[in-house]
Design brief:
- This protein is an alpha+beta fold.
- It is built from four helices and five strands; from the N terminus they run E-H-E-E-H-E-E-H-H.
- A hairpin with a 2-residue loop joins strand 2 and strand 3.
- The radius of gyration is 15 Å and the shape is globular.
- The mean pLDDT is 87.
Amino acid sequence: MLVELKSLKPNPFRDFAVDPYDDDNIEALVRSIKEDGFWGGVVCRHYNGHIEIGAGHHRIRAAIKAGIKEADLHIGRFDDAQMIRIYARENATQRGNSSTAVAGTVASAIRFLSKGVMTGALPVSG
């Protein structure tokens, strides 16, 4: 689906205070996009009238910085748990065991579980 990149919302479970953008990574991606084009690697979902990034935040930021306004992106049907798994898997495969990648994955799982307990979607037994 052709999507305006600036309209994308971040993964609601990614805490950028814990797992911020890596500017060096973005600059490397900008160079790559300028040399070889933007060819994907971004996973998104429709949610509440907008499109959220599941994985590929750095690639989207780099594409925008490289002057790309819209791109054909994969838009899937993902629930919140799947959005966390997509984010966690990208962290593990793209960034390995870096402290921010691991902390970001843990923070997203805690946010998801906390929301589930507070809304009653995940019952607490005790």
